[in-house]
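Query structure, 169 tokens:
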């Protein structure tokens, strides 16, 4: 149990964040991102390290980042950032309704999407989020795949969209 358990309920007492979400997201991101001890430029040109942690501005010179991040530190950093991101997603005005209507698998995917594209990037999936809030799972699948994200990372987007539609891995 993490110290972020206060995110599990909202004011009305309804469950907002599923128990085990932090661990589920961490496990998914470890699989999706893989670990790199040395800084590298991600596909979008940002200096990145660990489990896909962005560490600098786009197209920054990698010689500015001369260090190696131990795997244990990368894991702790990932866990901390995932917990923060869950709180941001759960309370974001454009995302919260969709997030609150999702089961654990769908919430995990939404956090993974926010991790990959940023909170603002996820918020731009307006049609997907509206469909999720309304429980129109197949529409959410269709809208998620009709995106630049699906073109840039087609296999990941397909896996995630399938979970949004089916509600399971």
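Result returned for the query:
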């Amino acid at each position: 149990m993490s110290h972020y358990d206060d995110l599990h309920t909202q004011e009305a007492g309804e469950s907002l964040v599923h128990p085990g979400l932090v661990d589920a997201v961490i496990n998914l991101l470890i699989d999706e991102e893989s670990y790199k001890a040395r800084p590298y430029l991600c596909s979008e040109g940002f200096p990145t390290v660990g489990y896909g942690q962005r560490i600098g501005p786009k197209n920054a010179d990698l010689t500015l980042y001369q260090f190696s991040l131990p795997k244990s530190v990368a894991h702790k950093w990932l866990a901390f950032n995932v917990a923060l991101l869950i709180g941001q997603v759960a309370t974001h005005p454009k995302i919260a309704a969709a997030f609150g209507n999702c089961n654990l698998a769908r919430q995990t995917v939404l956090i993974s999407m926010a991790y990959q594209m940023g909170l603002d990037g996820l918020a731009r999936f307006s049609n997907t989020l509206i469909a999720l809030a309304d429980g129109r799972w197949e529409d959410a699948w269709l809208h998620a795949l009709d995106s630049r994200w699906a073109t840039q990372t087609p296999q990941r987007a397909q896996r995630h969209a399938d979970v949004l539609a089916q509600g399971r891995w």
